[in-house]
Amino acid sequence: MIHPIPSGTRDVLPDETRELRTITEAVRHVFEQAGYGEIYTPALEYEAVLSRSDLRAARPAFRVFDERGQVLALRSDMTVPIARVVATRYANSEPPLRFCYFAHSYRAGRPRARQAREFLQAGVELIGSPAPHGTAEVLTVICRALDACGLRDYRVGLGDASLYPDLLRGVGVSDEDAARVLDRLVERDFVGLEHELSQLPLDDAAMALLLRVPQQRGGADVLRGPPGPVADAVAGMRRVQELLAPEVGERIIFDLGLVRDLGYYTGAVFEVYDPALGAPIGGGGRYDDLLGRFGRPLPAVGFALGVDRLHVALAGEERQIDRAESVDRAESVGRAEPVDRADQVEQARRP
Amino acid sequence: MSPTNDLIIALPRGALFEPTLDRLDRLGVDTSEVRANDRKLVFEELGIITMRPSDVPTYVEAGAADVGITGKDVLLEQASPAAGEARRDVYELVDLGYGRCTMVLATAGGPDPALAALRRLGIVRVATKYPRIAASHFEETGRQAEIIEVKGSVELAPLTGLVEAIVDLSATGRTLGEHQLVVREEIARCTARLIANPVAHKLKARAIDDLVERLRAD
Question: What separation in angstroms does the CA of A256 have from each of A59, A169, A224, A264?
């Protein structure tokens, strides 16, 4: 008998659970060492409370009515619930506050792109620690956690959510036009971006700047370039960079075009990449205004790693190492016995 | 660095194939092996993989290819909000300019049968290979349509009375004319686009920027 489950959800059986557990235990250890206390919150919240953060940020995809007709929503991330916890349960506590979580969240997703509708995240929130120190701390925790899992080739993209809006405002683009331009950037559509900009009354220099800046990404030399309207954001990124230990700093890709598709980010934003996976493993950023909407105005920063994606990336790196080793072996074996022996080695090692 | 900068590039077979290879030739990639091998899919030394155009975003989004070339029509069809799905998570980097064609709404000549159907029956039947583009076009223009997806020659559908209108890609308008169909509305202008995987765009930034620059300069 086949009894279906909703698309984008899945059962996790013991072999996989064991591997996932290895990952979450390694990450949990790092989080705890760094002083982040683990919490749980309900998967279901009142929609009205989640929406305080603004609907675009909370974007609950699944809602139900309870027996009294109240609208409940499945959380779409842990950042908003933790903001609620801080405002209600820690209303008088002295910041900074450090929380971590290992929890499932729910979004409308496309199963085809490994975007599950239910997904497990491992993350931290650092409340009451402003930029640049809070940002640098969280970046460090991300790298320590990924190191602890044994991920080798990851990089962390660092950008600033206010950079491009500042730039648009700086060259005199109205908020309404800016929103349309930003949509194209969020969609990663540079052809559309150029088209939107060409509709605006901009001089050539402004046009060139608006097209060039979001494509700039790479090492610290990216931060030396652009003056003028983006100077604040770039100076902020440089201050973060100065606080990072070398082994963390060398993981960073400075990315002036990095935007995250969540309404609440106000400053630094980040994304984690690994060559073994075609999509980011996780991300986060500063959300200095969100806590204020729950009545406890505090600067904050956090990130979440997709545990399933991290697992896939680790498995992908393992395969690459295996392949490299088998090529080495094939080459040394190959001198004595040609190709087909090498093929056997290769095949035996493939999963 | 190899001509494609050690990137894996997904190329569309079909109408865009020749002009795409011509373009790569001008960048110094020797594509003669690709031209000579109709049925080969992977050209490892060149970093080239070939597939149908509508598969290019799939391979690029998943990271099986770093970059790819496909038509804007394909990107639109896989991104239309009417489908209730987010667009493909890929960067759209360059409008390559070639493969120019137009997504059109066409009907039989004479009095517009689509208008008559909307007025009298409240709904128009539309045949297309691009159900999402067609659906969102009618949704955005506030008209009701029954979208009928066909896989073969779309022109057959209005000639047999299956539908009153079609949504299809037209390069020269010749095929439409041959079947006595006339263009009623232009929905979108489409050209070939260079797309990139979002992780490759960060981790292989230099190689991708170099390719973009050379394609723009060409």
Answer: 26, 16, 12, 18
